[in-house]
Prior knowledge:
alpha+beta; 3 helices; 11 strands; globular
Amino acid sequence: MKCTSRISTFLIFISLASVAFGQAKQVQPSVAQFRALITEQERQINAQLQTAAAMSHLKLEAGTITLFNVNGAKMFIGAMGGDSSPITNLPKGIDVAFGFFDLGQDLHGANQPLPAGVYTIRMMASRQDVDAFLKEQARPPAPQNRGNLPSITNAQAEFVDVSGKVIAKMDSVITVRSLDKQSINNRSHAVLVVPGSGRYVSFCIPLPYGHSLCYGLVGWHIEFSPF
């Protein structure tokens, strides 16, 4: 009986202790804690992406590495560092960015043509299209056309894997973002420029769900797709 009584008392004690611990007040994580978590995640991703780029003999502009999660499409991407490239080199191909891409599925549930992985993005355009673009952007615009910026609408973005193989090609757009001959100093790192003009050139690559990944004066950003 004594043994049974002791066991009963012990079980009651355990039960009360469990209730007491179960009712312990939970503390909402602070803004500072969330920011610290995000900062640490970004630091780790930045380091991994820079390491992956270095293994492919590429250098990224540190301040341009950005994380996106858009409708299930996940991207960690940075713009190429070093000197800006004139768009006259587009027929040969210009490496503009490097990153990890996992585009998920399209609206119909089908897998994207680009398998998840690490890729260099190489922008391409024909000599004919580049020459026409240069001629158009050099012409003083009529006042009614100032909103219609010169573009190469049938450029292509090649996704090149770590072995140097082109895994996918996507139609892309290359656009002058300003008709004013403004300096690109103190702005986001310029990857593509119009030779001799100081004009910044942006590029956009289509993504699932009607969006495009673009790089321009404000760095990386998502736009509604022009495609």
